[in-house]
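Retro notes
What went well: the complex prediction finally ran end to end.
Inputs used:
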Amino acid sequence: MNLSHFVALTIFALIVSTVFALITKNEPKEQFRYGVFVFLSFVAVAFAVGWLMYPLPL
Amino acid sequence: MEQTNEHLESTVSTEPAELRRINMPATLAICFAGWLIPGLSHILIGRWIRGLIFAACVIVMFVLGLGMHGKLYDLNVEEPLQLLGFIANLGAGLPYFIAERMGLGVGAQTAQGYDYGTTYLWVCGLLNFLIVLDAFDIAQGRKP
């Protein structure tokens, strides 16, 4: 199975944010909000770190 | 007037409703079941939907990890750092033992998804530990 980096990190973020939201919050509305926040944070940080590392010679 | 206020304060309590508490041996048995089969602890407590979502998350992550040629670590005392990977993998419970038995999770380092796959396998085990702890708290009446 060959998933692209972006798809792999998106699935990872989706699953982890779902579990975090269900564990840390009790009300469905809070769970949804927190889950979306964690998911977007994962993706945004991945993009930010990716662009920060882009100029580095690896 | 003061008496009325006191009466109101005593009847309108701001304390949350008393949470149901399960005895410790039963709680530990539920947690063991939840570790072995992801999500089962919440199902046994009566949180069906939450349990099924947890089960789906952990199992999908585990299967994807194996599909991406991730590595499953076994107990290897010669490499102490690998012990951390082993503990993380062990968190997945029964799926880990089944995959080990079937010879899966060898880990192809040349595969494109090797790093992601290995991380998926670690994280699904660690998430299952968190899920079991959540079930423990619920069973002990510490959270609704």
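What we learned: The mean pLDDT of chain A is 93.
What to try next: split runs per interface for comparison.
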